[in-house]
């Protein structure tokens, strides 16, 4: 199965997006750079949210990132995931940001392959607050192969 087929088999829907105030994904040379995509889930990890809820929120962000990449590139095929930046709205004593952002990385591994094009560099950071009170925000860089 191709990455596009795997994503669709996981239930990810791809529809044309209406351009907004900022570009959600821009191509520069052979790279696709995404804006930060925030989770639908609001709240703070370590206070009102637990790690498993954050994991699901990071997966939600990854799905949004993939939709933006699809809107720019037309398919998920022919791409390699290079870098993910995961931002977690968390308390000062919360230390499981990496486990939260695994929600994003695990989905990318499922779609692009953990040992292949989905094997990416990543940062997972804690923040005092994120836009709109979102629990998680994710941005990514993809390489257009070939």
Name of the top-level CATH class? Alpha Beta
- The residue ranges in which pLDDT falls below 50 over 5 or more consecutive positions are none
> Share of helix among residues?
25-40%
Mean pLDDT level: 98
The CATH topology? 60s Ribosomal Protein L30, Chain: A
Sequence of secondary-structure elements: HEEEHEHEE
How far apart are the termini? 19 Å
Number of helices: 3
Strand content: 25-35%
Number of domains: 1
Considering the chains and any ligands shown, give keywords for the structure.
single chain; 146 residues; alpha+beta; 60s Ribosomal Protein L30, Chain: A; globular
Topology of this structure?
Layout: H1 3-9, E1 25-28, E2 31-34, E3 37-38, H2 51-73, E4 79-89, H3 97-117, E5 121-127, E6 136-144
Parallel strand pairs: 4-5
Antiparallel strand pairs: 1-2, 2-6, 3-6, 4-6
Describe what you observe in this structure.
- There is one protein chain.
- With 146 residues, this protein is of the alpha+beta class.
- It has a single domain (29-144), classed as 2-Layer Sandwich (60s Ribosomal Protein L30, Chain: A).
- Helix content is 35%, strand content 25%.
- It has 3 helices and 6 strands.
- The protein has helices at 3-9, 51-73, 97-117; strands spanning 25-28, 31-34, 37-38, 79-89, 121-127, 136-144.
- Strands 1, 2, 3, 4, 5 and 6 form a 6-stranded mixed β-sheet that branches.
- Strand 1 (25-28) and strand 2 (31-34) form a beta hairpin.
- Helix 1 (3-9) crosses helix 3.
- It is globular, with a radius of gyration of 15 Å.
- The mean pLDDT is 98.
């Amino acid at each position: 199965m191709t990455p596009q087929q795997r994503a669709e088999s996981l239930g990810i829907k791809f529809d044309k997006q209406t351009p907004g105030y900022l570009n959600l994904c821009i191509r520069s040379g052979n790279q696709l750079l995404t804006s930060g995509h925030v989770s639908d889930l609001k709240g703070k990890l370590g206070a009102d949210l637990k790690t498993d809820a954050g994991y699901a929120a990071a997966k939600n962000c990854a799905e949004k990132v993939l939709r933006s990449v699809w809107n720019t590139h037309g398919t998920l095929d022919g791409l390699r995931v290079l870098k993910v930046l995961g931002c977690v709205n968390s308390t000062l004593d919360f230390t499981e940001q990496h486990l939260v952002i695994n929600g994003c990385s695990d989905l990318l591994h499922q779609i692009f392959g953990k040992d292949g094009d989905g094997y990416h560099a990543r940062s997972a950071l804690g923040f005092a607050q994120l836009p709109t009170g979102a629990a998680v925000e994710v941005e990514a860089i993809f390489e257009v192969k070939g």
